[in-house]
Specification:
- With about 290 residues, this protein is mainly alpha-helical.
- Helix content is about 60%, strand content about 10%.
- The protein folds into two domains: about 40-150, Alpha-Beta Complex (Topoisomerase I, Chain A, domain 3); about 170-289, Topoisomerase I, Chain A, domain 4 (Orthogonal Bundle).
- The strands form two sheets. Strands 3-4-5 form a three-stranded antiparallel sheet, with no helix packed on it.
- Strand 1 (about 1-5) and strand 2 form a beta hairpin.
């Protein structure tokens, strides 16, 4: 949106809109609406690019192959600006050394192996079995569906993956903590699909140790509460006192469950950048629902 020159470091400081701003929200809304519309076109588009793989024109075959991998792997298309001087980029900037073709690999036939540095220098490694078939791509896509670009496939596949995984991992009877864990687990699958990795946070071990201390303490509290509840019942105390002990025990059980879910959530997501997919690729309609 704007920039200013940092004279001390001789570099340009860029300023952009905050994620909560109205303009940013409207732009994101438009992005997800286009991705939702893609569901009505995607079967037709996939059928078309499979046909184009047999075209006599090399450019059409190349375009079809690029679209196939953008769709199948949710890869970034990439452009010259992204690559810059570092040599990092997306699918359309890959060189021959970034791919290895295997006639047989394990139990699979016709496997393409990718190994390259993507955005933010995150290494992308993937082995993909393929079928045995033989600023232009986006123009072609827009002719298939208004507003469609290669990036929309990434948003579409991320949101569809989240929707399917949420249906598998969650149920209406789950508590808030269980629902959050199911959502984050579904988001983990999306993040892996989109190669949203990160280094393990330096404070991870310390924060996990602190959380484990809380779990141990809460476990002891729960054991004491159960003992007190049992003693109250054996002593045939007043009903109101027994009920108070029972409620205290249930409350501690819920608290311990939430702490254990937090520990599981942190451990499973320690090397995955969940925030990137949440902010840029997951349709808020799904999160809200």
């Amino acid at each position: 949106m704007a920039g200013q020159l940092d004279r001390e470091h001789a570099e340009l400081l860029r300023h952009t809109l905050h994620a909560s701003s109205k303009l940013k929200g409207e732009k994101d809304w438009e992005k997800y609406e286009v991705a939702r519309r893609l569901s009505s076109y995607v079967d037709q588009i996939r059928s078309q690019y499979y046909q184009d793989m047999d075209s006599k024109e090399m450019l059409i075959r190349q375009r079809a192959t690029a679209l196939y991998f953008i769709d199948k792997l949710a890869l970034r298309a990439g452009n010259e600006k992204v690559a810059g001087d570092s040599g990092h980029g997306g699918l359309l900037l890959l060189r021959v050394e970034h791919l290895t073709l295997h006639r047989h690999l394990g139990e699979d036939e016709y496997v393409v192996e990718f190994d390259f540095l993507g955005k933010d220098s995150i290494r992308y490694c993937s082995r993909v079995p393929v079928v045995k078939r033989t600023s232009t791509l986006n123009k072609y896509l827009s002719s298939l569906m208004p507003g469609l670009t290669a990036k929309v496939f990434r948003t579409y596949n991320a949101s569809i993956t989240l929707q399917k995984r949420l249906a598998e991992l969650s149920c209406k009877s789950d508590g808030q903590a269980e629902k959050l864990l199911a959502y984050n687990r579904a988001n983990c699958v999306v993040a892996v699909l989109c190669n949203h990795q990160r280094a393990e946070p330096k404070s991870f071990e310390r924060s996990m140790a602190s959380l484990q201390t809380k779990i141990n303490s809460k476990t002891q509290e729960l054991a004491q509460a159960k003992t007190a509840e049992t003693g109250q019942m054996k002593g045939q105390g007043l009903h109101i006192d027994v009920e108070k002990k029972r409620k205290a025990t249930r409350r501690l059980e819920d608290q311990l469950l939430n702490l254990n879910i937090q520990a599981t959530d942190r451990e499973e997501g320690k090397q995955i950048a969940l925030g990137t997919s949440k902010l840029n690729y997951l349709d808020p309609h799904l999160t809200f629902a």
